[in-house]
From TrEMBL:
<keyword id="KW-0694">RNA-binding</keyword>
<dbReference type="InterPro" id="IPR011400">
    <property type="entry name" value="EIF3B"/>
</dbReference>
<dbReference type="GO" id="GO:0005852">
    <property type="term" value="C:eukaryotic translation initiation factor 3 complex"/>
</dbReference>
<protein>
    <submittedName>
        <fullName>RNA recognition motif-containing protein</fullName>
    </submittedName>
</protein>
<dbReference type="GO" id="GO:0003743">
    <property type="term" value="F:translation initiation factor activity"/>
</dbReference>
<keyword id="KW-0396">Initiation factor</keyword>
<keyword id="KW-0963">Cytoplasm</keyword>
<dbReference type="GO" id="GO:0003723">
    <property type="term" value="F:RNA binding"/>
</dbReference>
<keyword id="KW-0648">Protein biosynthesis</keyword>
<dbReference type="GO" id="GO:0031369">
    <property type="term" value="F:translation initiation factor binding"/>
</dbReference>
Length: 671
């Protein structure tokens, strides 16, 4: 390392900035190859193989209470497996017991077992992650977003409720700009335009200074406050008690006019909805609905007469509303009405700008116990996630001419734990539990097709997140000793990109879809980890006084895409074109590497005298390379380095080769 690099690292460490050079606990991770192959559809065979690995192998070196099934990563196709032990001594004992063993699965399966630490030694020293390397890497990955120069703003909330505003760029890292004292708990509006505080009956809105630009003074004490997605209105909900009777009140305030513009009360609340679900605005802020007893009323917010006017648009008779949700980009409202006893429930889609007699509605009947509505980001499809007495099923309802629908059923006894759409709405992922297999299973499915869900993996997961604007999703699972695992998975390739363990205090995606910020609370303090959306750790900063993180766009208007712009992005398929280019480049690189590999292999064949040892070395190296590719794709390495290391290792007792001889071979190989 040059003097300049040493000085730069010393300076960064003084500022509590540590660029990640870690491949932590690699001596605790054991990789097994040459396991029996499985057919993905046969879940029973998968469970049997997993059970044998746990009972006949893992529990031979560790205690039952110290081992969880989530510590095993076993693909549905079998053949390879990774086990994360709690101690390096357990991993070493495991390797000693089972490497080159045929006692578990028979003579046909000569198990090859090693640790990740040993694989790393084969590669030589890991390359240093400098800022410039990361910047180049990120720019190549995110050309399809056309936002290479956009700065992301990261706001850090301190224990004293002050706001530390920082800029983050992949090349230069985190740079603090200023600190704001906003006096109170800090919130952020949906699009990130405003920061706001709620204190002493006042809601103060801020831009980039500690001087409020708007102040809304409430006329009464309220129970719940929401700022609408369009950032134009504040909706306040409250429950009042008068003479042993409950009354519910809603007030709407205009942010920019700084005054109340609407107020209403009612006495009957839906048994299935929260108070704040009785009045909700659409994403554009042009309509809102209100539920009063069995009546659903639509209101229009009009500015045609140069002043804000609320117009009662139309009304609908609705009974026992169990779920209700606006479309993200269009004026459609999905409503699910639960019927009593064993009568069918009713699902309806409404438009607020049409009166009840002109509505072209879609209505479906269902026999269900529970319901959840999830819209695609483009607002063209809504999913009805229903729990029946037998299983979970998902009905995808398209908002098109004849309202076509598709249906997905999961195995009997299954229940849905989480469900997410990708940004381009082409894929969805589901987290399913069942009575037969209490450990959740992740399924991936293409939307708007007849393809069945594909089982990805079973693990002790809690939550799924899709990285904005990419086809990568993040699985949050249970780790070792109370930590959480954060795993990045590529939907298109159906493979892991990276896995980390954190004690998560805060977790938030950058609105541009580039970065993920995680506050990791450890015994030695709190660390801020910034990762890109394919799982590369970009920066680690010690931030002991920070309790929360909030990403905020700098060019905030640039995020307000119209429906036409969203459709254009989806039609042009920026992401797929980018991935196709990367696949072509990867194929070319692999072809060139194969040619170099063959030339070097021929040179070694001439240099060494024992063909059997050479063949054995080549096979051993090939097994390990294939193992790395299948289980840990991030540990890519140069073929010739592995090949030379392995062949030299297996021939060192047979023949000797001097440094000058090897230098001559390398010179001939490069000619």
């Amino acid at each position: 390392m040059s003097n300049f690099e040493e000085e730069a690292r010393a300076q960064l460490q003084k500022e509590s900035v540590f660029y990640p050079e870690k491949q932590e606990n690699l001596d605790r991770i054991v990789l097994i190859s040459n396991l029996p192959a499985l057919e993905p559809e046969k879940e029973r065979d998968y469970k049997v193989l997993l059970k044998r690995i746990v009972q006949l192998m893992a529990l031979q070196v560790t205690q039952v209470e110290n081992f969880k099934q989530s510590q095993i990563d076993l693909p549905v196709t079998g053949q390879v497996c990774a086990i994360r032990f709690g101690a390096s001594s357990e991993a070493a004992k495991f390797v000693q017991m089972f490497h080159n063993s045929t006692s578990i699965f028979g003579a046909k399966y000569l198990l090859q077992v090693t640790t990740c630490a040993e694989l790393q030694k084969m590669q030589g020293p890991a390359p240093v992650n400098t800022a410039s390397d990361k910047q180049i890497e990120l720019q190549s990955r995110f050309d399809h977003l056309n936002q290479a120069d956009v700065i992301s703003q990261l706001n850090l909330v301190t224990k004293r409720q002050k706001l530390r505003i920082c800029d983050f760029v992949s090349g230069t890292g985190l740079t603090q700009q200023r600190e704001l004292d906003l006096n109170g708990q800090i919130y952020q509006t949906a699009k990130g335009t405003f920061l706001y505080t709620k204190d002493d009956g006042k809601i103060k809105f801020y831009l980039d200074s500690d001087v409020p630009v708007f102040t809304v003074v409430l006329t009464t004490v309220v129970d719940h406050i929401e700022v609408t997605d369009c950032e134009k209105f504040v909706v306040c909900y409250s429950k009042k008690e008068y003479q042993n009777a409950s009354h519910y009140q809603v007030q709407i305030y205009s942010v920019m006019e700084e005054q109340m513009i609407f107020e209403t009360e009612w006495q009957t609340m839906s048994a299935f909805l929260k108070l704040e679900e009785h009045l909700r605005f659409n994403s554009a802020g042009t309509y809102f609905y209100m539920i009063k007893g069995n009546i659903l009323v639509f209101f229009n917010i009009s500015l045609e007469k140069d002043f804000l006017e609320i117009i009662n648009q139309n009304e609908h008779q609705m009974n026992n509303i169990q779920a209700i949700c606006w479309s993200p980009l269009q004026n459609y409202l999905a409503v699910f009405q639960k019927s009593k006893q064993d009568m069918p429930s009713l699902f309806t889609i409404l438009r607020p700008d049409l009166d009840p007699f002109k509505q072209k509605m879609v209505s479906r009947t269902y026999y269900v116990e529970q319901i959840r509505l999830v819209w695609q980001a483009n607002g063209r499809q809504v999913s009805l996630i229903t729990d029946t007495k037998q299983n979970t099923q998902i009905v995808n309802q398209l908002i098109a001419k004849d309202f076509p629908s598709t249906q997905t059923k999961f195995p009997a006894g299954s229940k849905l734990k989480d469900f997410q759409y990708s940004f381009d709405s082409k894929y969805c992922v589901s987290l399913i539990t069942s009575k037969q297999n209490p450990e959740p299973t992740v399924y991936i499915q293409k939307t708007n097709t007849d393809e069945k869900p594909v089982k990805m993996i079973s693990l002790d997961a809690e939550k799924l997140h899709f990285c904005p604007k990419t086809n990568v999703f993040v699985i949050i699972g249970k780790g070792i000793q109370g930590t959480s695992t954060v795993s990045f998975v590529d939907v298109l390739k159906k493979c892991y990109l990276a896995t980390y363990e954190f004690n998560i205090q805060a977790f938030e995606f950058d609105p541009y879809g580039r970065y993920l910020a995680i506050l990791d609370k450890q015994e030695k303090g709190t660390q801020l980890n910034i990762l890109d959306s394919v799982g590369t750790c970009l920066q680690v900063v010690q931030v002991d006084d920070i309790i929360d993180v909030k990403w905020r766009p700098v060019d905030r208007e640039g995020l307000n895409l119209s429906l036409e712009a969203e459709e254009k992005i989806n039609q042009e398929n920026f992401l797929e074109q980018y991935l196709d280019r990367q696949k072509t480049l990867t194929a070319e690189k692999a072809t060139n590497q194969a040619k170099k590999y063959q030339k070097l292999s021929d040179k070694f064949t001439q240099a060494f005298c024992n063909p059997k040892d050479i063949e054995f070395g080549q096979k051993a190296a090939g097994v390990k390379v294939e193992l790395i590719r299948q289980v840990f794709p991030e540990y890519e390495m140069e073929y010739e380095e592995i090949e030379f290391h392995e062949i030299f290792k297996f021939n060192e007792t047979v023949t000797e080769i001097t440094g000058e001889d090897f230098k001559e071979i390398k010179e001939n190989e490069t000619d």
